[in-house]
Amino acid sequence: MSTTLFARDAKRFRRIDIHHHYFPSNLEKEKSNADVGWRTPAENLPWSLDISLSAMDAMNVDLAILSFPALSSGFISKDNRHTARTRNEFAASICHAHPSRFGFFATLPFLDDVEGICSLHEIAYTFDELHANGVSISSSYGEGVVATYIGDKRYDPIWAELNKRQAVVFLHGSQIPSSTPYPHPCLGLPITEVPNETFKAAAHLVVTGNRRKFPDVRIILAHLGGSTPFLASRVAVLSNHMGCILTPEEILDDFKTFYYETALSAYEPNLAAIEKFVQHDHILFGTDFPGTFTRLTAFYAFRI
């Protein structure tokens, strides 16, 4: 199931929305929005399947891949594992009821839950029993000085399992504060931090050699990779001076193995830049619905 998004089955659809969230009814979305300085469009809350289907029809989207922002903070606990399982079974039930309109990326438990192999169990369950199209992961796990980016060796067993399955991974930047506050209420974490967190995670995968160690994992970077297309060359030029053993050419080659989706990034200069950077089949369509849906979103949906 995990590879069909990039192969034969994708040809059956006019447009696939690779970045489409679902919000369970027990999620206090308004509260979590307030924590990061974001306002989900009021008409999209409380979220329902009909709201997504209506938006998909408006944008000529045939298939949406549902995902829930990864569990990037918290503790290794039964509650955390239960939350991941419940969300995955909820998403799978939607796909079962509407197989021609939805697929889903599975949510993993807090990724540090490696020692108890809970994340590995959830990977097996969601692929083998729920038929997930891939998994959704965060750029880092934990908070503050103990936050760990996803290329860390502690996560190697997870990457090894995903590599063995030739899995699709949807990588979304964490909504975590930087060491300085965001500069203005109109420039909250989704604007100032998430794009850079995506870049930091992608760059971490590259310079640690993780991307080369697990080459069969197909990684999609949310929001056109955030700042990745514009900073990849900076990594290539400077990281050797800080101990990276890869050549600049190898670094750029590894950045080009990622897939880049267009949510909140489908501005013509951005698209022109990414088309110069990666092959066209590595550029995917995404909307970030229902977190956002504006006239601009719909406008660019018809231009891609």
UniProtKB/TrEMBL annotation:
TM annotation in the entry: none
InterPro entries, per the entry: ACMSD, Amidohydro-rel, Metal_Hydrolase
Domain of life assignment: Eukaryota
Keywords linked to the UniProt accession: Decarboxylase, Lyase
UniProt GO molecular function: carboxy-lyase activity; hydrolase activity
Residue ranges annotated for the Amidohydrolase-related domain, each copy included: 16-291
Gene Ontology, cellular component aspect: cytoplasm
Residue runs in coiled coils: none
GO BP term (any one): secondary metabolic process
Family classification: Belongs to the metallo-dependent hydrolases superfamily.
Protein name: Amidohydrolase-related domain-containing protein
Organism expressing this protein natively: Galerina marginata (strain CBS 339.88)
Lineage per the UniProt record: Eukaryota, Fungi, Dikarya, Basidiomycota, Agaricomycotina
